[in-house]
Amino acid sequence: SIPIASRGHNPRPPALEIAKVFEPVTDIFLADTWLGKEPVEGYIGITGRPVDWDVASQLVKHTKLPVILAGGLSPDNVYEAVVKVMPAGADSCTGTNMTDDSGRPIRFRKDFDKVKQFLSEIRRAEQELGRINQE
């Protein structure tokens, strides 16, 4: 994973510098959310919070490798994220999980309706990007 801070958080660690170091020894990058000391120090991913899409977009533009975008993606935001970042793929954990009675995600229990909506929004983004590339 390439750790990217969520929007408005300290941008350390420097995602683009980390990518340069690992680019020669990997085949793919997963851009996921890093929150620093919360919820667990050094924790990357499964936070439910989006990465900074501007930083993720720069990663896509500055590496030769495919980048999978993760970090807080859900059916509600994956279209916008994919159109803005233009990753090779998108990953969702928290945003497509079932929720308990209080609305909190239940880890690793998928809501198949959310997964279906997520995929539909990705397909819509692919069509939009195809249209933009043809112009």
Can you offer a commentary on this structure?
It contains four helices and six strands; from the N terminus they run βαβαβαβββα. It is an alpha/beta fold and 135 residues long. Helix content is 36%, strand content 18%. It has a single domain, classed as TIM Barrel. The longest helix has 23 residues, at 112-134. The strands form two sheets. The chain has a four-stranded parallel beta sheet. The protein has a two-stranded antiparallel sheet with strand order 5-6.
Task: Give short descriptive properties of this protein.
single chain; 135 residues; alpha/beta; TIM Barrel; 4-stranded parallel sheet; two-stranded antiparallel ribbon; 6 strands; 36% helix
In short, what is this structure?
With 135 residues, this protein is an alpha/beta fold. 36% of the residues lie in helices and 18% in strands.
Set out the fold topology.
Elements: E1 2-5, H1 15-22, E2 29-34, H2 53-62, E3 67-69, H3 78-85, E4 89-90, E5 97-99, E6 105-110, H4 112-134
Parallel strand pairs: 1-2, 2-3, 3-4
Antiparallel strand pairs: 5-6
Helix pairs in contact: 3-4
What is the CATH class?
Answer: Alpha Beta
What integer value in Å does the Rg equal?
A: 15 Å
Q: Which strand order does the major sheet show? A: 1-2-3-4
User: How many separate domains make up the residues?
Assistant: 1
Continuous helix count = 4
Poorly predicted spans: none
Helices and strands, in order, run as: EHEHEHEEEH
Proportion in β-strands: 15-25%
User: How many beta-strand segments?
Assistant: 6
Coarse structural class: alpha/beta
Reported by name, the CATH topology is TIM Barrel
Biggest sheet character: 4 strands, parallel
Instruction: Assign the CATH architecture.
Output: Alpha-Beta Barrel
